[in-house]
Every structure is written in C-alpha cells, then in structure tokens.
Predict the structure of Cytochrome P450.
Amino acid sequence: MSFAIPSFFISSGSLNGCFFAGHLSPEQGRISRMRSINRLPMPPTRGLLGHVHYLKRHDVHLQLLQWKERYGPFYRLRLGLTSAMVIADSEWIRTIMKARPDEFRRRSIIESVFQEAGLNGVFSSEGARWGHQRKLTEPMFQPAHLKYFYPSLRTITARLSARFARLAETGEVVSLVEEFKRYTVDITSLLAFGEDINTLEQGENPLSQSLRRMFPVINERCGSPIPLWRYIKRARDKQFDASLSLIDDHLNAFIDHQRERIRQNPQLLDAPENMLQIMLAEQQKDGTLTDADILANAFTLLLAGEDTTANTLTWMSFLLCSAPSMEENVVDECRQASGGEGGFLPWPLPRMPLLTAVMYESMRLKPVAPLLYLEPVKDTVIADFLIRKGTPLLLTLHANGFEETLFHHPHDFMPDRWLERGQASFSDLQPFGGGPRMCPGRSLALMEIKLGFHALCSGFRVEAQQPASDVMESFAFTVTPTGFYVRLHKRHQSDIARHEA
C-alpha cells in the first residue's frame, strides 16, 4: 500500500528532506522510504499520560522551546496512547499554514469544545463551515471600515488617558494588563456591537467579569485528554456555564437592538456603524447565515479582541521599562506625532517607526499566541515522516523569533533591529498566524496597539514595582504577563525639556 504526497508538499526547493516529485521516481517514493513518527526523538515522559502534564503547565510554550534546543525542530510527545509531533521548523510551519484548511485543521477537540458551548464561529470552525462563517467576518475588517471606526477608537483612547491620569494622581499600584483589558473590551464592545459598556470609567460589569472566566476554562478543556466536564461538573464548570449564559443573554440583546435600529433606518445596511450591523447586512444577503452564526462570531469578537491586544500592550510596557533610553526616544516620537503633550493621533495614523519597532520586538520576544494545535485531515508526509490523519501537531509559532540566523542576539530586547534594512523581517514572525486563516482583525489590532501605547507613553512614565525576573509568562490560550504591577507618573513638558537638553 502506498500514499500519495499532497501537492502542497511538492516544490522545486528543499524542506528538510521531504520527497519531491521532481527528484524521485514513483518507486523511490514508496511508503518504505517514509519514516514512522515513532522514530522522532522524545523528551522523558511523566506518568501514564506521558507529556499531558507538561501541556497543562502555564509555561508550556517555554518548555517546548527548551526541548527544541535539545531535540531539534521535529520531535515527538506522547499524549496518553497517542503520539504527537512538535514542529519548530519555520519553513514547514509556513507550508502547513498555507495548506489550511484543505490539508490541515485545528485539533478536533477545539471545534468540539466551542460547538458544545454554542460558540463555533470563524475562529474554531473548520472545512465548509469555516467558509460559511467567513462570509460574516471578512466584510467587517475591510480597510474602508477602519476609517469609520477611528472616532470610536479615539473616544475610548481618551478615556484610557483620563484613567491613567487618575491613577497617576492617586499613586495607586495597578496591574497594567487589567487596565489595558478594560480598554480593549470597551473598544470591542463598541465597534462590534455598538454598545458602550465603558468599564474604563464605570468599572467592571457582569459582562466583562464573565468574559474573564472564559479563556482559562476553554484552554483547559481544549488541552484535556478526557472531557470530564461533560460528566462531572466542578464549581469551575458551573461558573463557566453561568458566565456563558449571561454572555448569551447580553449578545442576544445586542443583536435585537441592532436589528431594530436597521429596521428603523435601512440606510445602515449600506453604511453600517458597527460589526454587528455588518453581519446582519450579510445575513440579509445570504439566508443561510443564522442568528446562531451571528451569536458565535459575536462571541469570537469579544474573546479575540480582549486578551491578545491587552497582553501585547502590557508586554511592550514591561520590556520598555528595562530600556530607559529607548523609552525616551519613543516618548519624543509619540509627542511629535500628536502635536505635543495631551494630543491625540490624527487619522490616518502616522507611521511612528520607533513605536512600531517596540511593538514588533515585543511580539518577537513575548508572543501572545505562540502555539497552534493542528491535525492533518488525511494521511500526509511532513519532513520525511508519515503522519496519519488526526495525528496531533503542535506548531511552535514563536520558535522563529529566537533563531540566531534570523535575529542577532535573539534573547535581547533590541527594537533598533527593526529600523535597519536587512536586520529583521516581520515575515519571520507569525503573531497573526498565516496562510488563508491569518487573523482577519490584524489591522484593527495594530491600530488599537498604536493608539493605546501612545496614550500611555506620551503622557505617563511607568514605574515597575518588582524586578523583571518576578514577572512570569502564563499561557492560558494566550500568554499573559503575571506579577507585573506598576505606578504611573504623569509626564510634564519639563521632563521632555530636560531630556532634550
């Protein structure tokens, strides 16, 4: 019996020993030449479940990097009775991501977890359903819409600045990531649903509190070899169900509200004010799109729009605390871009190469979405290894960022590398994934990051309250900085004058 090598693995180049049709005869490409995944090196296991314990750790992404240094870019893990392949080779990661969704999909358990919660939107869906969901989400992030989103972004960014000013005045020690989460959830709620929940000024509410409980439980379930929550409800599971019910109620109310607004003002179909109106307009064009589809994707927007951006903003602040000279240069750039102290960035947003360099360097050193869990939809070949349909694949998207061949002194915070031609390429990172399933909201996320970091950097100095070594990376669907507490101090024009002198 032989297996055909999928067309996307056939190339004129060379990818770590893959068989290419241009160099091998059919006889040479027979199954006997393919190696079993069991021939891959494997780190020591722990207990009957093998490496499952490691995948549940908050530093799993760091552990996988350590194993890569010891075992190479391809190695094997044992998950109970199942073998999984870890892929840390940049060329193969790109190849696999380009081959989605036809050749690879997210792990089946991920879609199952989201489906049973009624949340199977564009992030978690696969195959034909993903194409169906994409009809709802693609129109939301067209470049033309970003211009119309800007006034809302500016309004909420002004609130963020005002909140920072209050915190600076009181001298309160705060968790910066929690402050940025208020910012991102406010933006997402307003842009996605036209609802101003305003946690920056009014504090937490039941919706934002419920959202915070979702990611950790979803991450735990997606990584669990046995779905115990389906048979035994712990207190954590009951709290998850209650939070999910509350979020459903809020989102259904948001949908009804925007549908009524469209009924009263049909012009909103052609000039929508928020993403929910865009989805409702698409639903009118395509009767196969249901309210359940809209609800699932509305929830996806809430989840995807909060943690990832807030975490990136916080990591930027954390890293810049250790580089005061670079910080002052970024402050100068921010103030020049907005016309001085207390100004706001104009539209279109200025380039701000220094701020962008800090953002890219933070995405390299502290990527918030470092891992991608996939499986092949049919038997295939990766790097000369026969990989059976359904075999778990762990793609370490962050491994590239620490390659000496791509980034000189890869463990050092060096934003300047992004300012010099040929020193660093953003294409060597995958902060938004890649291929057909690249994050559709990346342009909006970059806008939020620029506006939010400008608000912080141009007006306030961040004073860390602990050594950098006390701040940990915690992986729970995204990588969050834990233990990072700060005091904010308002910058004054005299500070800039002293710096320029």
Summary: Residues 457 and 467 are 20 Å apart (CA to CA).
